[in-house]
Amino acid sequence: MHKNPHFLIISGTGRNTGKTTVACKLIQHFSRAENIIGIKISPHFHQQGDHSQLIFKGEDYTIYQENSAKKSKDTSRMLKAGACKVIYIEVRDYKLEEAYQHLLKYIPNDTCIICESPALRSLLQPGIFIIVDNPDQTNKKPEVIKQVKMADFFFKNGAEGLEKIIGKIKPTSKGWMCA
């Protein structure tokens, strides 16, 4: 397992838990004083529009940089929230390690990153790991439920739960830390 304290990883127990909302609120809060890079990693491959710049295409993974804060996509929302750069990675699970290693070429070593990706936690120990839960959802992701014990923070209902912990998180030159 790799360690990278500059990563803050956000995972969710399912769809529509508020992962992107939490990422955007954190970016908005911390980007006033720090450069924050937003990253979204997904196993789902979609046609990208002209607002995304292809950075790299590998076998079963693609890395894009988001260029528009005017769209409603999650990556556009991160850019609009104040991220200095937003990267979107489409990757099959078996290529995640390779995609992660390739990603590191495009981000400065000392920049704090907010990453929405449940899968990345399986190979990376971040500075902070957050799991967001939708208590009304019955179909929870089993791989995320297994990660609950690794979470620094676990809360329900997206941004509502974030308000309780935002003062306990801080970016530093050495990465994310619990205050």
What global shape is seen? globular
Main pleated sheet: 8 strands, mixed
Beta-strand proportion: 35-45%
N-end to C-end Cα span: 24 Å
| Overall SS class | alpha/beta
Number of strands: 10
Compute the number of helices: 5
Secondary-structure element string: EHEEEHEHEEHEHEE
Radius of gyration (CA) equals 15 Å
Q: Would you identify the regions where 5 or more consecutive residues have pLDDT less than 50? A: none
* Count of folded domains: 1
Helix content: 10-25%
Spatially, the strands of the biggest sheet line up as: 3-4-5-2-6-1-7-8
Task: Look at the structure and give the mean pLDDT.
Answer: 86
What does this structure look like?
It contains five helices and ten strands. Strands 3-4-5-2-6-1-7-8 form an eight-stranded mixed beta sheet, with helices on both faces. With 179 residues, the protein is of the alpha/beta class. α4 links the parallel β7 and β8. Helix content is 22%, strand content 36%. 40% of the residues are buried. The radius of gyration is 15 Å and the shape is globular. It has one domain. The chain starts with a strand and ends with a strand.
Spell out the key features of this protein.
179 residues; 5 helices; eight-stranded mixed sheet; 22% helix
Question: Could you outline the blueprint of secondary structure elements for this entry?
Answer:
Blueprint: E1 2-12, H1 19-30, E2 36-42, E3 52-58, E4 61-66, H2 74-81, E5 85-91, H3 96-103, E6 112-116, E7 124-133, H4 142-145, E8 153-156, H5 159-165, E9 169-172, E10 175-178
Parallel strand pairs: 1-6, 1-7, 2-5, 2-6, 7-8
Antiparallel strand pairs: 3-4, 4-5, 9-10
Helix pairs in contact: 1-2
